[in-house]
Prior knowledge:
alpha+beta, 42% strand
Amino acid sequence: MTKFSISLFAAIAVLAGLILAYNSSALTLSPPLYEIGAMPGQTLKTGLKVFNETDKANTFYFEAQNFTAKGEEGDPYFVGEIGKEDLASWIELPGPIHLESGELKQVEFIIKVPEKADPGGHYAAIFLSTSPPSLEEGGAVGLAAKIGTLVLLKIGGEVIEEGRLIEFGLVDGKRIFEHLPIDFLVRVENLGTVHIKPAGTIEIRNIFGIKTVEVKVNIAKMPDGKERPVGNILPESIRKFESSWQASEAENQPETFWQKVKFEKENFAFGRYQAKLDLDYGAENDKKLTAVLSFWVFPWHLILVSFIVLVLVLALLVFSIRRYNRWIIKKSKSKFS
């Protein structure tokens, strides 16, 4: 199972966190993520849907801000550098819009790509708020009462697509486990000039080389029911993805001995396993990142109880056989006396 992580889920979660003064159903701006391509000098026209779900009319204001990657979780960091010549300054937004309660409106915005725009990735967010655009001290964007849409623009030309696998390991660093789940950690660095979206599988085989399970990495089910890659990695940034091999969902970790026995039975695995990572990325999905690791699963609580039960059963069987033999011998002697 893939845990998820700029993915569609991350975009929704981060931008939803910017709302603050609203709750999640107060105002809807869709789609939450645009991934588009263009050539230098090209003009793009596209639109957004704005839905006022509050119980009163209001006036809303648009603004655009560039963003970069922050940390390894896929979170965007919004910057408000005045005069910064990049995607935010290429976007022409509509003026303030007035929406009645329950009103849905389609608004258009234009992206005018300069003739001398650098090939590769350019990133901005379109925000909608109840107050005119403003910058806080230090150039950071004032984030109160805002929702937004991320725009990932890829400008054609001499684009470099290059990713490097920094780490393929286990989340807690262990190599011996008592039970499932087994949590895998994948860290990828983008050395290119455009965002990449590595996605694939971790194939797990047992000690006999038999395929046990296949775990998805950076793949999620979309509203239409189809599975697609979700998490982008921006240029000059690192992103981590976590995926898990598990048999059942567990709300709490077991604490007592017998709880651990039950948990190991429900999340059973035994022996040495090999996990092979296979990720694809690139415009043609023709670039690969691969790695292999091994680990052990030894459910000793369950094995100990099973061993004790087996010994008791064998002891009972031996005792029963001996008692039966003595009864047969005794019966035979009494018959011939």
